[in-house]
Design goal:
It is a single chain. By secondary structure, the protein is an all-alpha fold. It has one domain (18-108). Helices cover 73% and strands 0% of the residues. The chain is built from 4 helices and no strands. The chain has helices spanning 19-46, 52-77, 79-100, 105-108. Helix 2 runs antiparallel to helix 3 (79-100).
Length: 109
C-alpha cells in the first residue's frame, strides 16, 4: 500500500509515508540513467560516432514541442494522471524497441 500524502499541505510527508515515494522516484531515475547508457551504446554499435551530434540535435528539437505539450497537459489534468500515461507510454516504446533490435538494429538505434 502506498503511503498517504501529508494531511497538511504546508508540511510534507515524513517517515514511513515517504518511503514508497522515495523508492518510486529512485526507480524512475535509475530507469532514465540506464536507458540513456543503453541508447547511446546501441546507437554507437550501429551508426558512426560522427552521427551522434546530429542525432542528439534531432532529439532535442523533437523534445521541445513534446515538453510544451506535456506541460500543458499537466496544467490541465494534473501530474498524477499525466505521469502515469507517460510511464506507460515509455514502457510501451521500450517494448517495441526490445522487439525491434533483433530484427532491425539500425532502425532501433
Amino acid at each position: 500500500m502506498l503511503g498517504r500524502m501529508s494531511e497538511n499541505p504546508t508540511r510534507p510527508a515524513q517517515g514511513p509515508a515517504l518511503l514508497p515515494w522515495a523508492v518510486a522516484g529512485g526507480a524512475i531515475l535509475a530507469l532514465q540513467v540506464g536507458s540513456k547508457a543503453v541508447r547511446d551504446g546501441l546507437f554507437l554499435s550501429q551508426v558512426s560516432a560522427s552521427e551522434l551530434p546530429r542525432a542528439m540535435l534531432a532529439a532535442a528539437l523533437l523534445a521541445v514541442p513534446i515538453v510544451l505539450g506535456v506541460s500543458a497537459a499537466i496544467t490541465r489534468h494534473g501530474p498524477g494522471r499525466i505521469a502515469t500515461w507517460l510511464l506507460l507510454g515509455s514502457a510501451l516504446l521500450f517494448s517495441v524497441e526490445w522487439l525491434l533490435v533483433p530484427v532491425e538494429p539500425t532502425v532501433a538505434a
